[in-house]
Amino acid sequence: MSSEILSQSEIDALLSAISSGEMDADELKKEETEKKVKVYDFKRALRFSKDQIRSLTRIHENFARLLTTYFSAQLRTYVQITAGAVDQLPYEEFIRSIPKMTVLNVFEARPLNGRVLMEVNRNIAYAMMDRLMGGHGTGISHSTSLTEIETKIMTNLFEKSLDNYREAWGSVYDIEPADMKLEVNPQFLQLVSPNETVVVISLNTQIGDTSGMINICIPHVVLEPIMPRLSVHFWMQSERKEPKEAEVNALEKKIHGAELEVTAELGYSEITVQEFLDISAGDVIQLETSIDQPLIIKIGDQPKFTGQPGKIRRKSAVQVLGQYQGGQKESE
């Protein structure tokens, strides 16, 4: 049954047509009970739900904002990057859709297995390189391959951008992008099998007067272990919930049982190395602290209280007099 909502005038017209005999109610019921047949292409298997596509869109919208800031700082020119379409299609179809000569950055997203592909439009890539080499960002190379210097420049630029990709994924899963390799001909790149489903996120990119696309291609096999994390249920989950009372009580109990080293400092003195070497039994070392000054009580290596020495049942003891000030900011 269609989910379309009819207006009051359309409802009135429908009732009028049924009452006048122009439409048969039985035929309408028959149409509703008929099975709806939908064409399904097994070569374009839909492996990602709409919910997961929306999550990937949010992640890469954040990535686009981070890239805008990163490239603006690196290239020192106007840069605007926004997330565009997100599609799932066979890997072979994606490879056929990109230009014969382009800039392909392949990297791993550890600990996930497999590789991710960042395809950068040739015009965008050379505009970036032109800016890095002191140009106006309009340089377009017509050569079929990159020189060693160009390859090094491009690799360094995009390797540093992977920090932004890790940050964009931080709210969903901790990844560590690494081992970026650069290629210019997609025909030489076999990321996954031709029929493997990949999700492609397109980023609309504007650098000065040059515009183009940056496409992120992620195979389904890479994301398969973390697919549940891409659902709305995960985004609303317990990570943002307050700790349970039992967990808080258990944590407090552990903290209360922790052992701390407490020391009372009688005083201090400074001597030379020679004086230290000449010390023998019976010598007296004069301390800088007066006998009527309170002792400093340390927790660990931090002074926290003042006290005075004494005895309890023939054992040495220190009575706490108050909190240590000493010109230091008191810890909470």
From TrEMBL:
Kindly give the membrane topology term recorded for this protein.
Peripheral membrane protein
Q: Where is the Flagellar motor switch protein FliN-like C-terminal domain?
A: 254-321
- One function term, GO molecular function aspect: cytoskeletal motor activity
InterPro entries per UniProt:
CheC-like_sf, Flag_FliM, FliN-like_C, SpoA-like_sf
Q: Which UniProt keywords apply?
A: Bacterial flagellum, Cell membrane, Cell projection, Chemotaxis, Cilium, Flagellar rotation, Flagellum, Membrane
Q: Where in the cell is it found?
A: Bacterial flagellum basal body; Cell membrane
Question: A GO CC term?
Answer: bacterial-type flagellum basal body
Matching entries from Pfam families are given as: FliM, FliMN_C
For the keyword Cell membrane, the answer is yes
Q: Which family does it belong to?
A: Belongs to the FliM family.
NCBIfam families membership: fliM_switch
Name-wise, this protein is Flagellar motor switch protein FliM
Q: Name the species this protein comes from.
A: Metabacillus indicus
